[in-house]
């Protein structure tokens, strides 16, 4: 079906973007149009990258002093996480552990790619850990439906000998007010089958949109009624700026929680 199309690597961030608005995916990934990032967001992204790097160095048993430097806040949150999660940050014999663990899965003509902040495996189970440098979101269900949760669990089940029931994913929200907090998502065969179906449908649609795009047709736009256009950077390009909301600079910024700390 998609013989003429080149193999495309897809991350959870791209799947989430397709869910938000296919046209936005077209603008960002096919046309490589940039989105506006505020200085505040840039600072957050840089801090998040440094935090991930420190955690990776620590996992490798390498010194972190030069990375932490004078940043007392960074040191504070790394210590807070280590104290809050000794069961995952203390090495136990006969377990496999790897930070920034990358896996890919060929699926429907796409290379689905994930990077786990930390993967811990033993004889009985496998845990995926992900560090988030923003406070814990209130809506657990939304996170359960996020492609990061779904794709990360799906790919591990597909590329290992573990049953879905032996796999889990935990987010650690490092900068929560009362100290680092975690949310754990168990997995099941039922969820695995549902994700396979949803992924299949989404990728069939994406392939069709890409084929039509090659023939000169644009990706579909999200419905106006969703309200997603008024704070989108592409509202003018999409002729969806009739309410003049682009003048509200605060609203035109991306939601911090929607920005991946480590993008693929
Ligand atoms: S303005 Fe609306 S339709 Fe256009 S890319 Fe943004 S969200 Fe999608």
Task: Explain how this protein is built.
There is one protein chain. This protein has 264 residues and is α/β, with parallel strands linked by helices. 39% of the residues lie in helices and 18% in strands. The protein is built from nine helices and six strands. The protein has helices spanning 12-20, 22-30, 39-59, 65-68, 72-84, 86-89, 140-145, 147-158, 189-214; strands at 8-10, 96-107, 110-121, 126-132, 167-173, 181-186. Strands 1, 2, 3, 4, 5 and 6 form a six-stranded mixed sheet that branches. A hairpin with a 4-residue loop joins strand 3 (110-121) and strand 4 (126-132). Helix 1 packs across helix 2 (22-30). The longest helix has 26 residues, at 189-214. The protein is globular. The two termini are 26 Å apart. The structure holds iron/sulfur cluster (SF4). Iron/sulfur cluster binds at residues 21, 23-24, 27, 221-222, 228-229, 232, 234-235, 238, 240. Residues 21, 23-24, 27, 221-222, 228-229, 232, 234-235, 238, 240 line the site of iron/sulfur cluster.
Mean of residue pLDDT?
Answer: 88
Uncertain residue segments: 244-257
Q: How far is the first residue's CA from the last residue's CA?
A: 26 Å
By CATH reckoning, the class would read Alpha Beta
- Number of contiguous helices: 9
CATH topology tier name: Lambda Exonuclease, Chain A
Radius of gyration: 20 Å
Task: Give the structure's gist in a few sentences.
By secondary structure, the chain is α/β, with parallel strands linked by helices. The protein has a single domain (8-258), classed as Lambda Exonuclease, Chain A.
């Amino acid at each position: 079906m998609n013989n003429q199309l080149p193999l495309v690597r897809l991350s959870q961030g791209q799947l989430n973007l397709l869910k938000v608005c296919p046209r936005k995916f077209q603008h960002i990934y096919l046309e490589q149009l940039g989105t506006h990032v505020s200085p505040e967001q840039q600072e957050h992204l840089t801090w998040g990258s440094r935090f991930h790097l420190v955690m990776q160095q620590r996992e490798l048993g390498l010194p972190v002093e030069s990375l932490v430097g004078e940043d007392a806040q960074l040191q504070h949150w790394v210590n807070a996480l280590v104290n809050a999660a000794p069961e995952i940050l203390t090495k136990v014999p006969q377990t496999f552990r790897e930070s920034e663990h990358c896996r890919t899965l060929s699926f429907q003509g796409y290379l689905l790619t994930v990077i786990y902040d930390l993967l811990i495996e033993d004889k009985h189970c496998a845990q995926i850990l992900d560090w988030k440098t923003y406070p814990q979101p209130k809506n657990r269900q939304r996170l359960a439906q996020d492609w990061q949760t779904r794709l990360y669990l799906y790919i591990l089940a597909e590329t290992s000998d573990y049953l879905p029931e032996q796999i889990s994913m935990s987010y650690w929200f490092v900068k929560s007010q009362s100290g680092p907090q975690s949310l754990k998502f168990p997995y099941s065969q039922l969820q695995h089958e549902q994700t396979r179906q949803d992924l299949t449908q989404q990728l069939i649609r994406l392939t069709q949109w890409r084929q039509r795009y090659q023939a000169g047709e644009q990706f579909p736009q999200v419905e106006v009624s969703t309200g997603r256009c008024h704070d989108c950077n592409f509202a003018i390009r999409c002729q969806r700026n009739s309410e003049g909301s682009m003048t509200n600079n605060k609203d035109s910024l991306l939601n911090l929680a929607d920005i991946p700390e480590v993008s693929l």
